[in-house]
Amino acid sequence: MSDDKKQLWGGRFTAPPDATFAEFNDSFRFDQRLFAADVTASIAHANGLRRAKVISNDEADKIVAALRLLLDEATKNADYFATENAEDVHSFIEAKLIEKIGDAGRKLHTGRSRNDQVATAFRLWCRDEIDAIIELIRLVEGSLLALAKRHEDAVIPAYTHLQRAQPVLFAHWCLAYFEMFERDVERFLQARGRVNVKPLGSGAVAGTGFPIDRLAVAQELGFDAVSQNSLDGVSDRDFTVDICSAASLLMVHLSRLAEDMILYASSEFKFIELSDAVSSGSSLMPQKKNPDALELLRGKAGRVFGNNFSLLTMLKGLPLAYNKDMQEDKEAVFDTIDTVGISLRAAAMILDNTSLNENAARTAAATGFLNATDLADYLVEKGVPFRSAHEAVGRAVLFSIEKGCELNELALDDLKQFSDVIAEDVFVRLSLASSLRARSAIGGTSPERVREALAAAHSKLKG
Ligand code: ARG
Q1: What pLDDT, on a 0 to 100 scale, did the predictor assign at position 4?
Q2: What mean pLDDT is predicted for residues 336-355?
Q3: Measured between alpha carbons, how far is 376 from 327 in angstroms, rounded to an integer?
Q4: To test ligand 1's pocket by mutation, which of 94, 324, 325 has the most ligand atoms within 8 angstroms of CB?
Q5: Which of 32, 113, 143, 238 lies at a CB distance of 3.0 to 4.6 Å from 351, suitable for a disulfide?
Q6: Which residues pair with 274 in a beta bridge?
């Protein structure tokens, strides 16, 4: 087939396409990834034609057997696509089929168009890829929970404005990302619901002209529903944006995780130790251990956002129904899926290769007045209005800064000058353990709440 490329539209034309046009127009070099999905959809279409008695049982059998053989050949032969010169994967498959079974193969395209064909194959492909992405998100979630488990009682400072704010359990930090990834799973599942609708049977634009039972074909392919309007069926690419926007938010979350870890791995923080397996050195500075894997995780977000934006721009203002612009949807989605896939695998591997320096994190959580809010809350419990308590503690912090010590290192008499309700029991309240214990409302960092949240997360992963 490489020499005499067979076009699907020969009859109307007297001259071959210009070589530059062919290069510009052909999508085979990238849409060959849809091969298995397109063959699968073609088998179901052949069965649909058979049931509608548009083709004979014998012809349908021949087509189905030959299509299965193609699948088999492609799996066994690594160069199956390499030597071929086709316009797109659809014409490639049809040509291969006709090569094998002649006229019966020429009947497969009855009652369908490449417009409903490509939309169907692409949706099938996307459905499987979404399932694979969800699996990988689960993998990252599992790694986060394992990391939390390795450092069950560890404490880190929580930050606002990247300034030390209040102590939290390290597991609470892990679970924050778990929550984000749970929403990502939810978004991919929602996208999957809208992906899993079958356009086949929309024909080129007006609907198929043959009495094919669209629902039966949908069932064979595992689609939940069939599209309800042929114009929309062939031109709806919303699902590609659904996927790429779910992917964009997922990359936002991965990049935030990466950024936290890059900071925590720096000498300024020294909270986490990345293993050599995920770090690289400098060609010039012998002492360096760089968090390249994390930086890539942070950096890959950009191309995924870009793909999402390309799709929106490509679709904006397109007249109904199919337009060739839509061929551009493939590479944007392929690159998104590839990028998200490797990013998730990298994230899981990095988390598995991370350990917390519990002492450094605890020291940071215990210094810098992270218990100032606890002192204010203590005053409130003793009847001081919060605003006045805030003011008094602010002055106490200033006093401590001048003395060069922490609030809990002040003498009781020193503390009493800021409020006469302060008594000996204040020191217990200013401890790290008490500060954590006090945050026991739902969603807080108290050890009890975090234990429950970890258990809930584990059962979500299992369920
Ligand atoms: N390669 C095309 C695509 O990806 C297939 C559909 C072609 N349809 C057409 N009417 N030219 O969109």
Answers
A1: 60
A2: 98
A3: 62
A4: 324
A5: 143
A6: 354
- The domain ranges of the chain are 10-110, 123-154+169-209+228-363, 367-462
Fold match, 10-110 / 367-462: no
Instruction: Look up 434 and say whether it is catalytic.
Output: no
Contact criterion met (CB below 8 Å) for 138 and 461: yes
Going by CA atoms, what residue is nearest to atom 3 of ligand 1?
327
Ligand 1 center from residue 287 Cα (angstroms): 54
Helix (H, G, I), strand (E, B) or coil at 169: strand
For the question of whether the overall pTM of this predicted structure is more than 0.90, the answer is yes
Distance CA(378)–CA(394), nearest Å, equals 14
CATH number of 123-154+169-209+228-363: 1.20.200.10
Residue nearest to atom 2 of ligand 1 (CA): 327
**Most ligand 1 atoms within 8 A of CB, residue of 118, 126, 329, 334 to mutate:** 118
Q: What is the mean pLDDT of the chain?
A: 96
Helix (H) or strand (E) holding 77: none
Bond preceding residue 321 cis, omega within 30 of 0? yes
Q: How far apart are CA 159 and CA 113, in angstroms?
A: 57
Ligand 1 atom closest to Cα of residue 89? 1
In the CATH scheme, what architecture does the domain 367-462 have?
Answer: Orthogonal Bundle (1.10)
Task: For 47-89, write each residue's pLDDT tens digit.
Answer: 999 999 999 999 999 999 999 999 999 999 989 999 778 999 9
CA angle (186, 294, 353) in 5-degree steps: 90
**Band (255; pLDDT cuts 50, 70, 90):** very high
DSSP state of 9: T
For the question of residue 446 being annotated catalytic, the response is no
Which of 30, 323, 327 maximizes ligand 1 atoms within 8 Å of its Cβ, making it the mutation to test the pocket?
327
Torsion of CA 66, 67, 68, 74, to 10 degrees: 110
Answer whether 250's CB lies under 8 Å from 340's CB: yes
What is the atom index within ligand 1 of the atom nearest the CA of 88?
1
Architecture in CATH of 10-110:
Orthogonal Bundle (1.10)
Residues with CB under 6 A from ligand 1: 27, 31, 88, 90, 114-115, 118, 322, 324, 326-327
Residue 38 alpha carbon to ligand 1 centre in Å: 13
